[in-house]
Amino acid sequence: MIPIDTLTEQLKELAKKAFSADGIELLIGYQKGEDGKSKPAVFRSSEEVEKLVWDNQSGFNLANLAHRFRDKKVGILAQGCISRSLVVLLNEGQLNRNQLVIIGFPCQGVLGRDGQLHSACTSCQYPDPIVKDYQVEGTGISNQKDPLLELVNNIESQSMEEKYAFFAKEMSKCIRCYACRQSCPMCYCDVCFVDINKPLWLARTPDQQNNSVWNLTRINHLTGRCVACGACDRACPENVNLMYLIAKMNKEVKELFGYSAGLHLGDKPALNTFQPNDPDFFWGKEGA
Amino acid sequence: MKLFTITQQDWNRFLQTISEFVSVVAVEDHAHPFKEKLYPPHDTLFFYRKDTPKEKASIQEKKTLYYGIKPCDAKTGKLLALNFLSDPHPDPYFKAMTENTIVISTACDHFDPYCFCDQIGDSPSALNGADGILYTITSGYHLLVNHTWLSQQLQQFGLTPTEVENEKSPFDKGNVAYREIEPLPIQVLREKGLSTILNTALWEKVTATCLACGVCTFLCPACYCFDIQDLSYGRVGKRERTYDSCMFTLYTSEASGHNPRPSIKERWRQRLLHKFTYYPMQYNEIGCTGCGRCSRECPSKIDIREVIRDAAQSCE
Questions:
Q1: What domain range includes position A36?
Q2: Angle between helices B148-156 and B8-18 (to 10 degrees)
């Protein structure tokens, strides 16, 4: 893998090129914060790009900000998961490819809140960018195993009581700060169902019952769209295990539809399309 | 104020002795603010049933003694009381909670990269409105007490106190964290914070990466905003009070659909100026304890100290 400093230097060079050759208005990347860790940042000129860094603390999904600045021509750093997020947003008509200059690089993984390589990264199968305009050459993280899938398989083999006990324990930790929603590039609804109080779709009370409805609804809305970048899990201040729910739902989508989100530009999202030979009678020939 | 010296062993025995009269709780979780004990994330105000008078939810009666709290967190009681206990409508739930709570903090022996109590005029050994504070020494603790019942109990236990005039005791430098660091320009915001209100460029810059989640406000020891919802189940129901956050869209959404704080920049401006300009204007105290949780847990790692400096710099 490329040394971090070399990677940062190459990203800086490409970012400057994006300013001079492609005429981007701003670049979405990372810079060092007061605590010495990298944090998301918006650079407005090639001089500001001197502060750009990438390291294993860069766990924020920048596609989120690409959506915020979608009326501008922007440059963005993207490894596998961020580029997959961009692909989903492009496929959903949320971004314009002509307005994006994607600086791709192979990903070495980022750390979770416990200081260990994050579970999304130890299970990552796509460290390289799917779409890009520039590319830093090299190899990224390579995983032979998928620990998250193993966790899901393990939980699936448990009894209903055991499954529920695990789920309930995770849900009772949630404080409903919505950091998961806000850090997710796919959660771009203008008005989220929890931000409506007439009618009151969901009580604000952060107890296990209401928290379960919140998290399950969010996960359902992400089915077939989530790229398992893990930004929500890293953003959660209460360490709720969101990855296992994501991994379960991605497994279902892959088994049922042979689909993983964000791998091909022009794909229709799994749940936004149907085929006449769908084995489900409601959609397929028996229902027609 | 009375000062006691107590060995670790005696301290443990003392806690056991008084647990006859009060519940004794050691606070070990510092990731969550202590405010959750005085002002819980959700609270039932009353229950109702159609055709019968409403029933008040039970208000906590038994006294609880919490110890091990950090001095920055102990300040939560003082700051929340300014809001909840001010006339003309003191909050009976919060009042009962604070009256039945004894708070003993422990002077802090280290700073982490996000701590800044010493940059806003507090210190890691300040009493900050607590009923007592423990200073760790080799053989146990110095215990400074500002609570009549507690010091009576300590004397009955067999300890002899010395009188201390104020908390600026010689223990400031004992096992207490200390560092040379530049203070934050909070005085500038206090005097001239209002001049930043129309400075769109400033707020756009500092909020470029803010996600508008509620982590900073939910974990802030000084944030107290709440929402009230009636949850009805057929003929019965309850009125719930839950934390709310000025970072949320719904917080200022009006019935007409209009939102006077439509974007993140207006909300951040409100959060910062409320703490460092409006709160001092109203109560002569800043709404911040320097605990650093807002920066420590921020998904975008926005550091409030940087924002304070940026905002102060742009004051006219």
A1: 4-135
A2: 110
